[in-house]
Amino acid sequence: MLKALVIDPGKCTGCKQCELACSYVKEGEFNPAKSRIRVFDFHQDARFVPYTCTQCAEAWCQQACPVNAITTNEWGVKEVHDSLCVGCKVCTIACPFGTVNYNASTGKVIKCDECGGDPACAKACPTDAITYTDIEQAGFDKMRHWAAQTDAGSRAGH
Amino acid sequence: MGWTGKVLRVDLTKGKCASEDLNKEWADQYMGQRGLASKYLSEEMDPKADPLSPDNKMIFATGPLTGTCASTGGRYSVITKGPLTGAIACSNSGGYWGAELKFAGWDMIILEGKSKKPVYLCITDDKAELLDASEIWGKSVWDTDAWIKTRHQDPQMHVSGIGIAGENGVLFSCIINDLHRAAGRSGVGAVMGSKNLKAIAVRGTGGVKVDDFPAFLAATSAAKEVLAENAVTGEGLPTFGTQVLMNVINEAGALPTRNTRDVQFDGAHDISAEAMAEPSGKNGKPNLLANQACFGCTIACGRISKVNEEHYTVQNKPEYWHASGGLEYEAAWALGAATGVNDLDALTYANFICNEQGIDPISFGATVGAAMEMYEDGTLTDKDTGGLKLKFGSAEALTTAVELTGKAEGFGAELGLGSKRLCDKYGKPELSMTVKGQEFPAYDPRGIQGMGLTYATSNRGACHLRSYTVSSEILGIPEKTDPLVTDGKADLVKAFQDATAAVDSSGLCVFTTFAWTLEDIAPQIDGALPGEWSVDKLLEVGERVWNLERQFNLQAGFTAKDDNLPKRLLKDAAKTGPAKGLVSGLKKMLPEYYAARGWTKEGVPTNETLNRLAL
Amino acid sequence: MHHVILGTGPAGVIAADTLRKQDANAKITLIGGEEEPPYSRMAIPYLLSGQIDEEGTYLRQDKGHYETHDIDVMHARADGVDSKNKTLVLEDGKEISYDRLLIATGASPIRPPVEGLDLPGVHTCWTLADAREILDRALKGDDVVLMGAGFIGSIILEALVSRGVKLTVVEMGDRMVPRMMDETAGAMLQRWCEHKGVNVLTGTQIREINRGKNRLDVELSTGKSIPAKLVVVAAGVAPNIGFLEGSGIKTGQGVTVNGFLSTSATDVYAAGDVAQGKDISTGEFSVLAIQPVAADHGRIAALNMAGHETPHEGSLNMNVLDTIGLVSSSFGAWEGVKGGDNTRMCDEDGYRYLRLEFDGDRLAGAQAVGLTDHIGIARGLIQTGLKLGRWKDILMKSPERLAEAYVATAQGISTV
Predict the structure, then answer these.
(1) Cα separation of B211 and B207, whole Å?
(2) Which of residues 201-220 of B touch A (CB under 8 A)?
(3) Are the C-beta atoms of C382 and C366 separated by less than 8 Å?
(4) How confident is the model at residue B601 (pLDDT cuts 50, 70, 90)?
(5) Which residues of chain A have pLDDT under 70?
(6) In A, residues 97-116, which contact C (CB 8 Å cutoff)?
(7) What letter does residue B465 receive in the DSSP assignment?
(8) How far is the C-alpha of B583 from the C-alpha of B593, rounded, in Å?
(9) Which CATH superfamily does the domain covering C325-411 fall into?
(10) Which residue among A103, B338, B482, C288 sits deepest, i.e. has the most Cβ atoms within 10 Å of its Cβ?
(11) Domain of B449: which CATH number?
């Protein structure tokens, strides 16, 4: 069964445990600046929005990569292979969601890979604002719909 | 490992920033934040120094768990000599600023001297510089926050600073970070203002490491479970915030009302958590819009509120129509019960202004309460107040007063002196509900006896956060004691004081202790730091910190006479509620407390005690 | 069904892969002009800086990719197309018949009319063969002159600096990357490069290159002469359309295509640097010689070739550049649109710059220096034409809040 990260901003309190969990798993330290998920704080609107890659079906980042360093794994997740990434950053401008970021300290790009099927952010979220759920659920359809709005190039035929 | 090992020393007089190594020996004895910074302060400055002179130092300090995934691990404290009290001040704040400082690579910032002109300190990772603040001097905390983020083109910067109140030396001005999180008490904002330091902006992109990651993750995960399953931290605080207490304390007959003339407030429900959740205004939205967590906090007690757009305070001010930090219990009490005002929107607005201009709402509300009593008994006239009709229950008086105090204009400048100096000035010192010059908060010592001893012996002047015996006496945590008796309270207060001093030195929030005991906390600190950090060691650190602070105050000139309460609490019995007929039993508790502490009858730590604590 | 793809750059390879996904049985022939496995020119700078070896430049990293997917890869150069008889003519005279043809022949470097460009020691930096020459010649401490500080020149610049050469860059325009960024950004990049020890001469031309003793003498329009062991020419590129002369396939700046990437000839398509596709910012058809456009073109052209009618809505011009650690990017109408507003934030000391161009309350273009987090959002906003509403006013004052503006607008977060 395909699963996906489903985000419900209405439940987010802005604690950033997701950023801490992500950066620990990926970088071996607590470092929100290198987290693959980021919580946006809309203070005046009383909203917090966790934000990360939606793993789009025909991923812009993947197609833009000149050296095939981004591949799709069996769960549909787009993974960056550090051994192949040359750090050209084309994927960072190609991703219309801005969820592929350049990590200057390694010279490679970083993005969410759902921790190989066991995402640390979802486990760390104390309010279920981030869950790892069966993709048939409505929340994910909404995210995909949102993703589709950005789809100005054509995706017909898929 | 837990600590970054780096201290930023800023000489404001010379305009220089320098990095130095953290004193590891002290760190092992005092852990961090409150304890470690108090040690630095004690070693580096004369406790007799004028708090608003360049001789006072000011330390912004994080704890070893700040910036880690430990729940609530985002705290920092401001340690300095407080101008409201003349005692050592330690004001603790949440939000995101403390963690950001850690990510920038610093355990603490020591500020010394005084800048010739207004400056702000800008820290981006290991780069720190003092920059011209002439364009933001005179601006509010909120405008300063926006200006700095725009100036540095970085919305992810976190700013801690003062509003107009701190610039103008309002003696209960505070330091606000992340728009509405406050290092609130003892006038730390005025110290910052006296140094011509407007703000400290931080952006950190580095990481925080702990000594033993697997052990740390296991301990913090287990501790988070405890918070989630506890009724107070897992349900009460996220749903109602600290405001869950309003009706509870009122029913306990311990809600100081109208300058503590009464112990119950007939308007308590109107300003309670329950009222905040009720639909109000044209669009039917409640006052409370959301709860917010500070960095790393899995409790999320913070309130995000808005003022009803039709309310008189904001109907012509759309700039206040957005959401911002809402009422916490202490603020709701001070702005409401202490002044007899039951208008929730007026309180929320006053709270906004306190945040915007950097005012401690506890001291402000309590001072207004004292002024109202003096106005009603004729001590203060319209001539004195500039026409401000300071009647108990007047929302207009409250909201006008907060605007004036924020800007230190008119009678606001007098209110800015705090209750003690104001009452002294008008010849009514007995009407000031203060200890060591600091207004006490939202618990009446006649109805919760332990809090009388707590206020009287607090090292930073009257304060609930030095030993929150309410937890035991009202909520039954960790075990229930009778709030109306004095027996056993000396030991209870000492135990709470020592444990709290340890928590305040760790980077964690004291609210965790509704659910956590030191048995839950010790393994987290032990995982983060090298060496062994047992419960016993934490208690020893806590007791050491407490005695160090006491020593500072004794050297500053305080004596046992200052471990006292206003006469009203000692002579005038509570008129209603469960505590009806009772006064505070401080006289009985204090000698017991000194003995429990290993202090002389004069309240001075014996040599034996000092030696035992390696002081 | 026989699909013939001319060109083994990203457009060609993505087209081949897409065709295979669409049709398991079709015959697919992929023809490359260089005697190399399909590789990425974009990766050459990283080969020069030693981050990767030649294999690291290959477009497909899985072993036996083309065999596995039954894609015939051959090396040959095209000489012409007989679109009536659906036949491709190769330079060696061989003919290949096709059912559908994709022209993805890319571009070649322009060699400006400067005396001495044919001397040994003067190279373009375009192919793997060029890279091998440069690897041999540009060694630590060597004097190297780079002709051109446009986008490609600036990417090569970084690679050369990483090899430790003493570098002088000569750009005839008034600034670096004049077709990617404005004066402020160009000047910032120049200041950064100079700070990093690169000699940058803007507003300067190379008049001629002469053979000196064990070196080349590069004569400048300023009258100065500078020595060089190696001169690298990066003076722009032009689409490879020469072989189409007389084929009847319409060309302009590149190969003319319609909204389905189909050329004027039946069953002939074009994609990538050679194709004059639709530019979403201008609505006009022009060559956008960048990797993401090649990828889009390749995929969409292939879908049409496979019989799935798929419109190409247009591409967005965008570039990202790392100049010795200073990352810059530009998107869409970065110079602005008629009647639109713009806002700029400039931090000269911190080497950070952001300029946003609006069309009404929609983002039309952007450029950024020293800002990389979530930068793709600029593309998202421009391409979707998301109406920013109140966030436009916020951005006019604080352009650095772009990511917040996108997340808030896309998620419909409104004031309480």
Answers:
(1) 13
(2) 204-210, 213, 217
(3) yes
(4) very high
(5) 1, 136-158
(6) 97-102, 104, 107
(7) S
(8) 18
(9) FAD/NAD-linked reductase, C-terminal dimerisation domain (3.30.390.30)
(10) B338
(11) 1.10.599.10
C122-233 adopts what CATH topology? FAD/NAD(P)-binding domain (3.50.50)
Distances (CA, A) of B471 to B338, B493, C34: 22, 11, 79
Cβ contact C410–A46 (<8 Å)? no
Tokens 């419909």 sit on residue:
C412
pLDDT in tens, C321-380: 999 999 999 999 999 999 999 999 999 999 999 999 999 999 999 999 999 999 999 999
- Alpha-carbon gap, residue B209 to A19, rounded angstroms: 15
What is d(CA C17, CA C19) in angstroms, rounded to the nearest whole number?
5
Domains C2-108+237-305 and C122-233 share a fold: yes
Q: Chain A residue closest to C327 (CA)? A: A89
* Rounded Cα gap, residues C166 and C131, in angstroms: 18
> Which residues in chain A are closer than 8 Å to B97, comparing Cβ atoms?
none
Q: In this complex, do C415 and B321 lie within 8 Å of one another by their Cβ atoms?
A: yes
Closest residue to A30, CB basis, from B205, B207, B290: B207
Q: Whole domain around residue A152: which residue ranges?
A: 1-52+115-158
- Please judge whether A152 and C384 are an interchain contact, meaning their C-beta atoms are less than 8 angstroms apart: yes
pLDDT of residue C414: 72
Give which of B3, B62, B69, B235 to mutate to test A binding, by max A Cβ within 10 Å: B69
Q: Residues of A with CB below 8 A from B290's CB?
A: 13, 46-47
CATH of domain C2-108+237-305: 3.50.50.60
Q: What is the CATH number of the domain that holds B116?
A: 3.60.9.10
B323–C398 C-beta distance less than 8 A: no
Nearest neighbour of B298 by CB, restricted to A15, A47, A48: A15
- For tokens 């008189």, the residue is B312
% pLDDT > 90, chain C: 94
- pTM score of the predicted model: 0.93
> Omega into C38 within 30° of 0, i.e. cis?
no
User: Among B186, B203, B220, which residue terminates a domain?
Assistant: B203
C-chain residues near B288 (CB < 8 A): none
- One domain for residues B160 and B309: no
**Which residues in chain A (42-81) have CB-CB distances under 8 A to chain C?**
42, 44-47, 49, 51, 58, 60, 63-64, 66-69, 81
- Judge whether B145 lies within some domain: yes
Q: Assess contact for B111 and B10: CB atoms under 8 A.
A: yes
Question: For residue range C41-82, what is the model confidence (pLDDT) as tens digits?
Answer: 999 999 999 989 999 999 998 999 999 999 999 999 999 999
Q: Note the ipTM here.
A: 0.95
Partnered with residue C100 across adjacent β-strands are C3
Distance CA C374, CA C370 (A): 12
From B69, B291, B300, residue closest to A24, measured CB to CB: B69
